[in-house]
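Retro notes
What went well: the complex prediction finally ran end to end.
Inputs used:
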Amino acid sequence: MIAIEDVSKRYADGTVAVDRLSLQIPNHSITVLVGPSGCGKTTTLRMINRMIEPSSGTIRVNGEDILRKPVNALRQSMGYVIQNAGLFQHRTILDNIATVPRLLGWSKQRARARAAELMERVGLDPAMARRYPYQLSGGQQQRVGVARALAADPPILLMDEPFSAVDPVVRRGLQEELLRIQGELGKAIVFVTHDMDEAITIGDRVAVLRTGGKLAQFAAPDELLSAPADAFVEEFLGGDRGIRGLSFLSTRDLALDRSRVFPVGSDWQQLAGESAGAGPVLVTDADAKPLGWADLTVWAGDVQALEPHGQAFEVGKDSLRVALDRAVLSPTGQAVAVDGAGRVLGLAGQETVAAAIRAARQRRAADSEGVSTVKAAR
Amino acid sequence: MNVLNFIQSFFSDGSHWHGYDGIPQRVWEHLQYTAGALAIAAAVGLPIGLVTGHTGRGGNALAFVSAGARALPTFGLLVLMFVWLGLGIVPVMIPLVVLAVPPILITTYEAIRTLDPSPVDAARGMGMPEAKVLFQVEVPAALPLILSGLRSAAIQIVSTATIAAYVSLGGVGRYILDGLYQRNYEKVVGGAALTAILALLVLVLFWAIARVAVSPGVRRRRTV
Ligand SMILES: Nc1ncnc2c1ncn2[C@@H]1O[C@H](COP(=O)(O)OP(=O)(O)OP(=O)(O)O)[C@@H](O)[C@H]1O
Ligand SMILES: [Mg+2]
């Protein structure tokens, strides 16, 4: 756990970059520092590994003041990843990754074996081991940067806008990779970004800083989206925070409509009589996989003539945001819900999703009341 | 007679190839002056350039001192040193070193100072001690430029070491000076040709050093 206690940083020219900041950064989780340019994110991060000394306040790691440890030993116990990766151009990929183990006095052989292990962990082709940094793409270089930071297995990882120099598709890949690695390793990660989407995607907790280095809000992403502390945070979250907040709500409890899904070979004549005018039905194959939409008043049973059903969402795995998106995109206004094997479980219209959102809100309100009652009782 | 004829007759004259005034002896002397002056200049210029480049401090003072050193006329300095110190190797070495320090110093300083700051930042951030930051991160990346500074210093020394002859020392400058006195233009041209050949040898030597010492990752030739 990293405890930032009442820390301020005033630069020599009088700029106050961080102003009486207090943050508790838990182990085994990703804490994101986010905020507009110049709000003191980098300064805060670099005070943790003493690349910058605070003007006042204390930073503790697992209870111990970081000033009590020799500065290089402190830094060796924290992985550090920066925006342009900062790889050593004259060293091969393998030797770049082996840097900190070598600093710690490991033999060359052992350090390289460890480096090879990490290349695999971050998804780098082992064939790249002997290459030099200039022979890698930006995204690959960032992976090397992450591998190098993880090489000595530090409990803490400090990352300063590590993915902001790569294109959005590669960035998403790197974010997923980071989440996967974090799932395996469970580090205390402090991650700086100015991109709120990135903060929401990867953060377990998000600290929003405002210009002048003041903490505006420190909360879990869904809480941030549903209850921004003030107008600054709300504006920083952007115009679609309501929609984005749906990413944190599960589709598990959606009330799916199963009455309008029929396998091929059903008696369409009879069904048309029953449900004529009641809108389209979803036709599935014998294995319950979706085939397409049919309007029974005109459709004559030809599978080729079905209206494409578009993308489905997977119940339990995809969020209400995805479900709503699918419903909006669907030609019939109904999203197709499937299980892990792609078999249709039912349909969810926009209204169904809306009802699930209302239910989730009520549940959360009840939960937070419950929490405050417990607190009050103590 | 043209220059090529001079050169040909100078090098084909068997008497020019042995004895205390023979080509091997004069070249050997010349190389000794060059190596000596380069070693002293490097011993002065490299550490100062590395440290000021690493810390980023003292750049203005450096520029000032080197501009001053460059303004000194080498031959004038030689005469001054000769008057002051008399005959010997020292009055020759001093002007050569003064000539060679500025390119080494300034190039080394600039080579380190203008490096991409992110690898250095990353190195410090992962807990690398300052000396290792300098020698394991900065120097390898700056090596091509540092070598180019040493190379231009070496070329300048090789061509200027001919002045040693003025204070009764050897080196290939002997041929030029003696030839002028004796009106033996074959000798003058031969000495000049030898100087040029030595300069070319220096170029080849530094090319070879760079091949061996500079990492392929820094040479940055994209072959794909
Ligand atoms: N060495 C310095 N001397 C003086 N002021 C500085 C120094 N470093 C940063 N600052 C100032 O401190 C403030 C915070 O800088 P910092 O680099 O922490 O911002 P940031 O949140 O990381 O911004 P960005 O998103 O642009 O990276 C800025 O106003 C910046 O100009
Ligand atoms: Mg920054």
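What we learned: The pocket of magnesium ion (ligand 2) is lined by residues A 41-42 (CB under 6 Å).
What to try next: split runs per interface for comparison.
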